[in-house]
Amino acid sequence: MTRTTPLLAAMTTAFFVLSACSSSAGVSPSTSTQPSASANMPMASEDHSESFAFGEPVEAADADRVIAIKMLDQLKFDPASIEVKVGETITFMVINTGTVEHDFTLGDEETQAGHEAAMAGGMAGMGHDEPNQLTLKPGTEGELTWHFPKAMSVLYGCHVIGHYDAGMVGSVVVAGS
Ligand SMILES: [Cu+2]
Questions:
Q1: Which domain holds residue 85?
Q2: What is the pLDDT at residue 129?
Q3: How many structural domains compose the chain?
Q4: Centre of ligand 1 from the C-alpha of residue 101, in Å
Q5: Residue 158 alpha carbon to ligand 1 centre in Å
Q6: Could you say which of 69, 75, 93, 102 has the lowest number of CB atoms within 10 Å?
Q7: pLDDT at 155
């Protein structure tokens, strides 16, 4: 013979009340028939704030892995192409093994063209504080950590006068999982 104590009975009752309440919680219909008002927000293309179409700079401590890239006086990067996965964060350890200054600018075609134009316009040396760029003297190295959130092709180019046109550019192929 089992006896249920008054306390246990009260707790059991409370449990059922709570269950009933939570299970009857709203089934609210959601509608998505409103037209989007923000379909084509224009982007500020000359804005140098930390907003990039090809990812974002992050702390080195957050990197998934490190990739070493050499700058060569033959006006090439070695390697000239790397692959990363969508969502990966990479620290680029860039080493200038040459005898002249080189630059490592990470970015899409538009960014590369913009930097090339800026350098040609006498802006050499003005980009040191940009988070997607390293300018390295001969024999020095630097690090840049970047998060790649979407599948696309990103380039790394050197914009010391004449180098980009000579082919000093590499590609980061960001591929889906
Ligand atoms: Cu160069």
A1: 56-175
A2: 66
A3: 1
A4: 7
A5: 5
A6: 93
A7: 98
> Read out DSSP for the chain?
-----HHHHHHHHHHHHHHHHHHT---------SPPS-TTPPP-TT--SS-BTTBEE--GGG-SEEEEEEEETTTEEESSEEEEETT-EEEEEEEE-SSS-EEEEEE-HHHHHHHHHHIIIIITT--TT-TTEEEE-TT-EEEEEEE--SSEEEEEE--STTTTTTT-EEEEEEE--
> Which pLDDT score, from 0 to 100, does residue 79 have?
98
CA of 160 to the centre of ligand 1 (A): 5
pLDDT at 162: 95
Per-residue pLDDT at 171 = 98
Low-confidence ranges of the chain (pLDDT < 70): 1-50, 123-129, 177
Residue 17 lies in a domain: no
The answer to whether position 77 is within a domain reads yes
Cα 52 to middle of ligand 1, angstroms = 23
Report yes or no on 141 lying in a domain.
yes
- Asked, for residue 74, whether it belongs to a domain, the answer is yes
- pTM of this prediction? 0.70
